[in-house]
Design brief:
The radius of gyration is 16 Å and the shape is globular. The chain is built from no helices and nine strands. By secondary structure, the protein is an all-beta fold. Helices cover 0% and strands 45% of the residues.
Length: 150
Amino acid sequence: MNLQGLKSVVALGPVSLTAAGTATSASIDAKGYEELQLVVTKTTHASDYITVFNIQQSDSTDATNFAAVTGYVAGTDWTLASLTGGTNAASEKAAGVFNIDLRGKKRYFRVLVTNGAVTGVVGITGTLARAEQAPITATLQNAGVVVNPS
């Protein structure tokens, strides 16, 4: 089953950020995986937006070693307007999905985010896929319990 080869990570939150508030996600260790998907979710009102969003990578967890991942730079590779909140919670979707091919990338990833002019809630989850070795236990999947019905 392909779903047994995934590892889920809560990188950030959900966290309430004040106007112009900033947050740095937890580091995601991508060792042994070929793909990382980051999903950004946020509150849903028209005045809610993100002013800075930066996906970074490093060979260590030392905060001074992280640098932007080429191809995922807000304002260069895509626009921040796409991370603006909606006005209808019933139809709201994830604010952003970022698919990262880990081949040739560094081991650790994190996200820096700065909120706009009003208080808003931001959350970031990650899914690591295509593991060298299937993470078949709850611990290896970063979960409290894993259920695989037959």
